[in-house]
Amino acid sequence: MKRFILAILIPLSLSFGENIKTIEIPNIPDNKLKDGKGKEVVEQYCSICHSLNYITMQKGLSKKVWEAEVKKMILFGAPIENQKDIDAIVEYLEKNY
Amino acid sequence: MYTRRQLLKQAAALGLSTFYFKNLNFDAVADEISFPEKSKDLIILSPRPPLLETPNKYFKKLITPKEALFVRWHLSGIPTYINLDEFRLKVSGNVENPLELTIQDLMTKFEPVEYVAVIQCAGNGRSYVKPSVPGAQWKYGAMGNVKWTGVRLKDILNKAGIKKGSVDVVFNGLDVPPMPSTPDVVKSIPIDELFDDIIVAYKMNDEPIPMLNGFPLRLIVPGWYASLWIKSLSDITVTDKEFDGFWVKSAYRVPDNPCRCIEPGETPEKTKPVHRMRTYSIIIDPSDTKVVKLGEKVKIMGVAFSGGYSVNQVLVSIDGGKSWSKADLGKDLGRYSWIQWFYEFTPKRKGEYIVMVLAINSIGEGQPLKGLWNPSGYEWNEIQKLTIKVV
């Protein structure tokens, strides 16, 4: 119990006179994806690295652009290994966002 | 990890009243969540990694308060614990004397430099790009005007002694990828493109930099987009060959042609890294279509800035671009700062007035009537339009 009090006191009082700084990132839930075929696959892979808000904030993109995005995410290390999953993800994204 | 709500619940269980927290200036109340050291009214584009946008109202101030400045991290492994006793800025690679500097070293052994500079995400305004492009859908709030204090990168590199034949200077911060397969955010600047005003900052608006904005050190490349401004800077490496990291070779690139633009949907033949900022003026107040009565004075204000060359003219049109007149300019805080502009007029007829604002800098760079499109929506600086309805 003492530990959490410290965790909130330190960031409030830190100056360069005091040498440890910690912050707590609030645990805010992601925006929810629209229901649809492939939603679970998208949730499973995309939320490994980033919030689903990255998807819900987009303003309507073509299949070509979503394909390129998924390819980019694989370059960024997304562990989407088989073509079936890639296709399901692209199809869901194109249809819903 | 605790949420603030959980913390407060625990505090209640311990018999600590919310009054106690208020006295500590702990600004979250039970039903509101805010990010550490940040205002609770920042707009949350994403919680993980945090993408927090500054609401328009803060831009009425010449200097953006540090708790209101936007937050943009690329990878979810952001630093949440830093011990300054252990923290070192390492300077290594193709240098005579590798360095390991403490914050104290930087504050006491180098000449301090300070200036006000606009910090702007390369994707600021992306939500207005037509046709729309993927990426963080910022309005105009991925920017701010901040006073930075630090030491010249040049002075640090001179202390280390750059060896002959060096090519790039590479910058890395404390953030880490969420997965081993994800490339770490590492950026570079060619040695030939370094300039004296690049600093390693340890203060923002005269105080330590908030953790989410890059505590304890941030690279400041004034006049350039913030993609280069590495947060929680921990490593500077001089290389003897071109740096080919993912975040330089594959991300944050624009078409390599004079307009840095292509027709929507096309693919650029060649690309180059995002560097210097385009000239930009943004209408702050009113923030949206406004209805006024005939005879009522209309007051408009905003900010204008450019990539390191002073904005010396801001022109306003109230007839959709047919005629233009000069706006009054506010206090000049130097070529890296934004300048506030003010304009007022009294409508002489009922109907709609289309207000447009164009900034021009000292080397003649202005803004396009139609935004310059590129696949990632970087460097957006289309002339804005605001409607005033007179009834």
Outline the fold blueprint.
The complex is a heterodimer of chains A (97) and B (391).
Chain A: H1 2-13, E1 20-22, H2 39-46, H3 53-56, H4 63-75, H5 83-96
Chain B: H1 4-13, H2 18-23, E1 43-47, E2 50-53, E3 71-72, E4 81-83, E5 89-93, E6 99-101, H3 103-109, E7 112-120, E8 143-152, H4 153-160, E9 168-173, E10 186-190, E11 199-204, E12 207-208, E13 218-220, E14 233-239, H5 246-249, E15 253-255, E16 271-273, E17 280-285, E18 290-292, E19 298-305, E20 311-317, E21 325-326, E22 328-329, E23 339-345, E24 351-361, E25 385-390
Parallel strand pairs in B: 5-14, 18-25
Antiparallel strand pairs in B: 1-2, 2-3, 5-6, 7-8, 8-11, 9-10, 9-14, 11-12, 11-13, 15-16, 17-19, 19-23, 20-21, 20-24, 22-23, 24-25
CATH architecture tag of the largest domain in chain B: Alpha-Beta Complex
Q: Into which percentage range does the β-strand content of chain A fall?
A: under 5%
How helical, in percent, are the residues of chain B? under 10%
Instruction: Report the mean per-residue pLDDT of chain A as an integer.
Output: 87
Poorly predicted runs of chain B: 1-31
Count up the domains of chain B. 3
What distance separates the N and C termini of chain B? Answer: 55 Å
Shape of chain A: elongated
How helical, in percent, are the residues of chain A?
40-55%
Strand portion of chain B: 25-35%
Please name the two chains that share the biggest interface, counting residues whose Cβ lies under 8 Å from a Cβ on the partner chain: A-B, 40 and 54 residues
Mean residue pLDDT of chain B: 92
* Number of beta-strand segments of chain A: 1
Q: Characterize the quaternary organization of these chains.
A: heterodimer
Q: Regions of chain A with pLDDT < 50 over 5+ consecutive residues?
A: 1-14
The value of Rg of chain A in angstroms is 19 Å
